[in-house]
């Protein structure tokens, strides 16, 4: 088990505008994860594109997924071409994420990627479980996003895998912006015998 697994979380412009920064951070923090990097910035459209295309296969995977999701709901997809579909999605994401300040964070701890994704909820708020960030605070859906020719407003980006997280962290943070420090609670979370609690 990797106690120092890291993941990237971005509170998107809608999360900032709705004053949910503290609530979102609290949810990750109380799970036992450790915040090791944080900053606020307004990303450029080019930077957002670089973020989403770190994986060269992202366009094909995203376009295919969106087309299939539309068909599964009985909706005629915008196009049958996955790359064309992904280009449209990317254009909406660039507009969305560069529209205002975001808060970028690096969280560390055992199973960080999976824990953060579980707390965050599914990509579509409408189908996210109650108790997740997206399920509790957002009423948006793919359908509403498509009707408005915009990205789904889902408050948070969370890395999808350990490999993806490392690439995204390298894009968003310089090494000196990540702080290596110890939390007292780590002894409770990771020490096998809970030694040293009693005096």
Would you mind describing this structure in some detail?
The structure is a single chain. With 199 residues, the chain is α+β, with helices and mostly antiparallel strands. Helix content is 45%, strand content 12%. The chain is built from 10 helices and 4 strands, in the order βααβαααβαααβαα. The chain has helices at 13-17, 21-29, 45-52, 58-72, 82-97, 112-120, 133-137, 142-147, 162-172, 185-190, and strands spanning 6-11, 34-41, 102-108, 156-158. A 4-stranded antiparallel sheet has the order 2-3-1-4. Helix 3 packs across helix 5 (82-97) and helix 4 crosses helix 5. The relative contact order is 0.22.
Structural class: alpha+beta
Which strands sit side by side, in order, in the main sheet?
A: 2-3-1-4
Distance between the termini: 30 Å
Number of strands: 4
The total count of helices amounts to: 10
Low-confidence spans: pLDDT under 50, at least 5 residues? none
Sheet with the most strands, sense and barrel status: 4 strands, antiparallel
Considering DSSP H and I runs of 4 or more, what fraction of the residues is helical?
A: 40-55%
User: Mean pLDDT, nearest integer?
Assistant: 93
SSE topology string: EHHEHHHEHHHEHH
Write down the overall geometry: elongated
Beta-strand share of residues:
5-15%
Please give the radius of gyration in angstroms: 18 Å
Q: Short summary of the structure?
A:
With 199 residues, this protein is an alpha+beta fold. The protein has helices at residues 13-17, 21-29, 45-52, 58-72, 82-97, 112-120, 133-137, 142-147, 162-172, 185-190; strands at 6-11, 34-41, 102-108, 156-158.
């Amino acid at each position: 088990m990797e106690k120092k697994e890291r993941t990237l979380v971005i509170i998107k412009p809608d999360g900032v505008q709705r004053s949910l920064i503290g609530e979102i951070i609290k949810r990750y923090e109380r799970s036992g994860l450790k915040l090791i990097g944080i900053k606020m910035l307004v990303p450029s459209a080019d930077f957002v594109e670089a973020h989403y295309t770190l994986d060269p296969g992202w366009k094909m995977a995203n376009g295919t997924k969106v087309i299939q999701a539309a068909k599964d709901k009985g909706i005629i997809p915008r196009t049958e071409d996955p790359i064309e579909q992904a280009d449209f999605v990317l254009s909406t994401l660039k507009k969305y994420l560069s529209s205002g300040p975001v808060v970028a964070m690096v969280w560390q701890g055992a199973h960080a990627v999976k824990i953060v994704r579980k707390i965050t909820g599914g990509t579509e708020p409408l189908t996210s479980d109650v108790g997740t960030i997206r399920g509790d605070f957002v009423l948006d859906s793919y359908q509403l996003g498509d009707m408005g020719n915009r990205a789904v407003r889902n408050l948070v980006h969370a890395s999808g895998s350990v490999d993806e997280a490392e690439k995204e962290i390298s894009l968003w943070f310089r090494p000196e912006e990540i702080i290596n420090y110890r939390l007292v609670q780590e002894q409770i979370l990771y020490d096998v015998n809970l030694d040293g609690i009693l005096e």
